[in-house]
Amino acid sequence: MEISILGNNSAIPSHGRNPTAQTVAIRDHLLLIDCGEGTQMQMIKYNIKRSKISHIFISHLHGDHYFGLIGLINSFGLLGRTDTLHIYCPELLPAIIQLQLDASKGRMPFEIIFHTIKDSGERSVLVENKDFKVTCFPVNHRIPTHGFVIHEKRKPRQLNIEVCQQYEIPKSFYGKLQEGSNYINEEGTVIDNLILTTIGKGDKTYAFCADTIFTKSFLKDIEGVDYMYHESTYLDVDEKLAAQRYHSTASQAAQIAKIGNVTHLLLGHYSSRYLDIIEFEKQAKAIFLNSYATKEGDKIEF
Q1: Which of 34, 64, 211, 221 is catalytic?
Q2: Of 227, 86, 215, which Cα lies nearest the Cα of 149?
Q3: What are phi and psi of 109, to 5 degrees?
């Protein structure tokens, strides 16, 4: 799994930072989380192949999280995209996008399928296939907002290649071994799976917590994830302002990471009032050591 940070500022682009957007690469899949203004330019700058994007997840309808979406859709059409595009989003977004397309008499050469998330606060599996699963959970912001947890599925069993070769197991059967099947050779002898494999590793997990006031309401949703991206719009000195505007501080993000037994914390969504982001990481690390203040262009692979 590889996370690419395309935008990590809050409402206004400033100090060389752009509004929220990031991609998550899982094997041959490319997912886009939020699509703030300028996302296409960031994709070009950081060599993201936008044509590979199959699923887009929009956390909420504040402009810095979706104003780049109609431009991206339009570019897909101009570039001759034919693959279906799946968009997971708040309930009002399909009508907004359709109005923009109707106003320009736009007709896309590909199908757009909207999967709406209930404004009342929904916890559900949004998409699942053999490679990954994405779930959503509500956070606490000024308007209906959801975070996402992405699971990269891994095989439940790991192969012991030397033993497999010793028993002359054909490579075409390796996938079934990883799923737990025994192997029966040409003589009819059953070779137990436990001889050929060991217990595999669990799913890789990434949580995107979106814009939220400091709250423990979604701790169960992010419990134990490998990486968590949590907004850190403000520093400690502006904690009261954070609460008034339904945002969090870097220290509060670190508290959630610590309580939630997260392995790594990624900070972002910085307010334009701050020129430098060094202090965000410093304040977070004082509470949760594995904290990192993201920079645009960062690629986090795990």
Answers
A1: 64
A2: 227
A3: -80, 15
Q: What is the DSSP string of 94-107?
A: HHHHHHHHHHTT--
* Residue-wise pLDDT tens digits, 183-226: 999 999 999 999 999 887 789 999 999 999 999 999 999 999 99
203 is catalytic: no
List, for residues 23-40, the tens digit of each pLDDT value: 999 999 999 999 999 999
pLDDT, one tens digit per residue, over 221-257 is: 999 999 999 999 999 999 999 999 999 999 999 999 9
pTM of the predicted protein model: 0.88
Closest CA to 267 of 239, 300, 293, 299: 293
Q: Which pair of structure tokens corresponds to residue 78?
A: 């101009």
Give the span between the Cα atoms of 160 and 183, in whole angstroms. 14
CB 289 within 8 A of CB 279: no
DSSP state of 295: -
Report which secondary-structure segment, H or E, holds 9: none
The terminus-to-terminus CA distance of the chain in angstroms comes to 6
Amino acid in position 140: N
Q: Is 188 exposed, middle or buried (0-12, 13-18, 19+ CB in 10 A)?
A: exposed
Query: What is the C-alpha separation between 52 and 67, in angstroms, rounded?
Result: 20
The length of the chain, given as a count of residues: 302
Question: Which contiguous run of DSSP H or E holds residue 17?
Answer: none
